[in-house]
Design a protein that fits this description.
Layout lengths: L1 H35 L2 H5 L3 E14 L11 E16 L2 E16 L5 E18 L2 E11 L4 E2 L6 E3 L5 E11 L5 E14 L3 H5 L9 E2 L5 E3 L4 E18 L2 E12 L7 E12 L4 E11 L5 E4 L6 E4 L3 E13 L1
Antiparallel strand pairs: 1-2, 1-18, 2-3, 3-4, 4-5, 5-8, 6-7, 8-9, 9-12, 10-11, 12-13, 13-14, 14-15, 15-18, 16-17
Length: about 325
């Protein structure tokens, strides 16, 4: 009887010890799993965020300079940031791009060299690997008024124009370097909140009407609605350890009027990183919008006329860049 009691006691102790070891193993496994997760994982939100602030400056000072010229100072401030969220089959990409530049010369008013506000958001549901059903919204305008370099006349302003694009389509993202958003159903709204520019029919809105004596009968419209197809392409890649290349291109065709006229917005950016603080950039921007009228010189004469044309800008900068 005594031996039986001792045996039962040992069996009970063994069972308790084994159960305790099993519980400890489960707790250790759970703790290891929690430690392997990031803070974003434990909250159910997975975000990738980043951005840069860049300031490029140039200055020229001339004193008794026989070759002639003007002393000048110029600068461009740029802010670019993104915040992307990916959880399960859902993806949400957001970006903002801001830029403003000025050039000041002796005896002359400062003039703009850059002016940009651009906000982008895209929300998608993964249908199969790399393919998403997605909705896109894009907004563009500028900070301050713009003037024609030759005449000094005001040709643009904040929300004149402003562009809002809303599209539904598919988004192809095979990797972190390339994406292609294709939308057969996109609404594009152009805003011209400056009435003088609206009356002139700037940026494609319906102009004001006048009687034979020049009295205004109807005011120019402050917005223009278009509906069509839209494609947005983006590619980025590190060409070398300190050289990054980025290119983005947007294409839009208005089904409702002259669908053969494709609006194009194509930009490229090379970033050459000198060190953790300094970098050099080379950027280009090409824009064609059939509805945008541009002041153009009449052949080889000082006279100008308003017409359609391709806009192009190229800029080289060296300055401070801070990563966020």
């Amino acid at each position: 009887m005594k031996k039986t009691s001792i045996s039962l006691t040992f069996l009970l102790i063994f069972a308790i010890t084994a159960n305790a070891q099993e519980d400890k193993a489960q707790r250790d496994a759970a703790a290891a799993e929690m430690q392997a997760k990031t803070a974003a994982d434990t909250t159910g939100k997975i975000w990738t965020k980043g951005g840069t602030i860049q300031l490029n400056m140039s200055q020229v000072s001339l004193t008794n300079w026989s070759a002639g010229g003007f002393s000048s100072v110029s600068g461009i401030a740029q802010f670019n940031a993104f915040a992307n969220r990916k959880k399960g089959r859902f993806a949400w990409d957001n970006s903002v791009a801001l830029a403003y530049g000025l050039l000041a010369q002796d005896g002359q008013d400062a003039v703009k060299t850059d002016d940009r506000i651009e906000l982008n958001t895209k929300y998608g549901y993964e249908l199969k690997k790399s393919w998403y059903l997605a909705m896109l919204a894009q907004f563009k305008t500028q900070f301050t008024e713009g003037k024609d370099a030759a005449t000094g006349a005001r040709i643009s302003d904040f929300m004149a124009p402003g562009y809002l694009i809303l599209g539904l389509g598919v988004d192809y993202k095979p990797n972190d370097h390339f994406s292609a958003f294709i939308s057969p159903a996109t609404a594009k709204i152009t805003f011209v909140n400056d009435q003088d520019l609206a009356d002139a029919g700037a940026f494609g809105v319906d102009p004001a009407t006048y009687d034979t004596l020049g009295a205004r009968l109807t005011m120019g419209k402050n917005s223009e609605f278009e509906f069509g197809g839209y494609v947005k392409l983006m590619y980025t890649h590190d060409l070398a350890k300190n050289i990054n290349f980025l290119t983005r291109a947007d294409f839009f065709s208005n089904y409702l009027k002259n669908p053969q006229n494709i609006d194009v917005n194509w930009e490229t950016l090379f970033t050459f990183k000198v060190n953790s603080w300094f970098s050099a950039t080379l950027s280009t921007l090409l824009i064609y919008d059939h509805d945008t009228q541009i002041m153009k010189p009449w052949e080889d004469t000082p006279q100008q006329y308003v017409g359609k044309g391709t806009q192009f800008k190229e800029a080289i900068g060296l300055g401070i860049m801070l990563k966020l």
